[in-house]
Amino acid sequence: MGGTAQSDGRRAASDYLRQLLLKPGAYRQAWERCVVRTRPGTINQLAVSDVLARHLSSLASRSARVLPHQLKDTVSRALSGRLLSRPALELFIAAFGFSADEADRLRKLWNGVGTIRVLSGSHAVPPQAEQTIQQALGPRRHQTLTMHDHVYVDGDGRIAKARTMQVIEASVADTDRIPYLYDTSALTVAAGEGCAGLSGELRQLGDDVFATEILLARPLGLGETTTVEYTTTFRYPGNLDDQHERQYRRGVLASLENFDLRIEFHPDRLPAGLWWATWDGVDGPTLTQEPVTLDSLHAAQRYLRSLQRTVVGFHWSW
Prior knowledge:
The protein is of the alpha+beta class. The protein folds into two domains: about 5-115, no CATH class; about 125-315, Sandwich (Immunoglobulin-like), CATH 2.60.40. Helix content is about 25%, strand content about 40%. It contains seven helices and 13 strands. It has helices at about 5-20, 25-30, 45-60, 70-80, 85-95, 100-110, 125-135, and strands at about 120, 140-155, 160-170, 175-180, 185-190, 195-200, 205, 210-220, 225-235, 245-265, 275-280, 285-290, 300-315. Strands 1, 2, 3, 5, 9, 10, 11, 12 and 13 form a nine-stranded mixed beta sheet that branches. The chain is globular.
């Protein structure tokens, strides 16, 4: 394996490790027990060191007890992506008790398996908008286990609709709704399977951020899962020179695992060029892009294992 691929793989494993430790649930609770006060979006490295040290001490004799400060540099290097060694990775897996699937994914990422993709950015929306969203919607009450977006572009070149299927898990008791965010107001939303409707009209939370809430068909208990499906119909004016009408993007404020995006074009209106891209937030420039070829059904698809604080999607030309 080349040095670049190996380095990229270990950084990807580090990104995924941080996501596992930050998402609501047992892993986060394990290190938060060692902290008096937590900061949103921040991992307390000494608390993580404490979890690792207690695990190592449980395997050793009393005279060989490991102290948290002895592991602080290891934790710092691992979580920053500077150096995540294989022994350190295995220590995290054992100490936090990651599931078999999560452990397998970490090892494959560390080994540089190219078919598993993790994307991590700095933000999906401007900091001011993110603060407004948090104030408007309150604390996060769920996590998304899988998300599928199927997008359709009509024969007139307009984005017609997107069908979204989401599997969610409640991170607090009595979760009865999930937020719905978009970077355009030119749409309508129709609730489907697992949904009871919408809480109200789209309201603007920032220059390019609009929100409402999707009501669940039934409240979920802590740890319960359900599938929700909804269809977004777009009402763009039809100016095909406008770049906003030639792209479909998914922004991730915190983290998202198992994201699948498929876009399908009408056979009478195929794009001259199509690219898979990442953006510097909803209002920022394109960061990376790669050309994409349509399949025999005039469609393209991308699957990502994990995303964090980033914006991804397709854009095209006519």
